Amino acid sequence: MRFRVISLRSSAFRIGAVVMLVLSAILFLLSRIVTASPPASTPIAVYRVQTAQRAMSLTVNVVWGTEYVPILLQEFRQAGVHATFMVGGAWAASHPAILKTMVQDGMEIGNHGWNHRHPNTLSQAEITGDLASTNRMVQKIVGVSPKVYAPPYGEFNRVGLRAAASLGMPLVMWTIDTIDWRPTSSAAYMVDKVLAQAAPGAIVLMHPTDRTAMALPRIIAGLKRRGYQLVSVSRLITLGIPRSDS
Predict the structure, then answer these.
(1) Is this structure's pTM higher than 0.85?
(2) Which domains are present in the chain?
(3) How many whole angstroms separate alpha carbon 118 and alpha carbon 129?
(4) pLDDT tens digit string along 46-81?
């Protein structure tokens, strides 16, 4: 008769080795998950705000079309609407009276860079300097510093996101582009597009053009009929969760 000798020491060793392998595999998978997931503090480009409130923002990028800005301001003022004017620093320096009127009318002043350079061609230090110069100019003229940034040409990358974040400024894009800078975009086209794509938390992009001036009263009236409150971008961001998808 043969007897089988069982070594408790070897069995314990094998069990321990298996446990170590399982733990190692778990730690490896966790490390991959953590690496793949961006940190919670990673800045994003805000294309819309996820909110249950029926609110939207109308934004106007201003570095040209100065002759139409007072017309847009008059429409906003008469409608009791608070919009966000994203202004270039050089433009603000040349038109302080209009900038003061914007603030007097309750509009938000945002930052659109200094002189409309392509952000993706600039270093983080250059973009930061560009934004800071514009903030200082606006602060000097109206006593209020911009809190949001709309990059020229809608152009940004991680460098631009970090530059804006370093100054505590959300980088704001848009949900609905009126494409009003294009000569073939009629006032009717802009009105139809905005009203068709309207949604809670949407951000509308506009520029000061003759067609925008014609479309704006109908856009505002149409959105109000649908129950939308029109607020500044900074206000909209406080009403929900900023999202990077449009």
Answers:
(1) no
(2) 45-243 (3.20.20.370)
(3) 14
(4) 999 999 999 999 999 999 999 999 999 999 999 999
